[in-house]
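User: I'm curious whether this sequence folds into something compact or stays loose and floppy. Could you predict its structure so I can see for myself?
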Amino acid sequence: MDLSSVPTGGFARVLSVDLDEGPRVRLRELGVRPGGELRVTQRGAFGGLVVGVGADRFAVDASTAASIRVAPVVGPAAPAAGPTSPTGTPGGTP
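Assistant: Here's the prediction. I'll summarize afterward.
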């Protein structure tokens, strides 16, 4: 399945990026690399997508999205929130 098949709000794990060296390196710099997870946050009128990788978001055009092979992810790994105190305040202090 390619990235363009992921529904809005859906998460996917990148399997491969089938692009020339320049665009592939740029996507790797943005965090789109095999094994990485991303989320489709918006869809454009002509097949483009806005994807999120971590806290970053960026757009990819339709042909780029079709060149990124992915596998669906049921739920993303939740980031570590850190310790909390018994009262629920962050950092373990009341």
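Summary: Confidence is low (pLDDT under 50) at residues 78-85. The longest strand covers residues 11-17.
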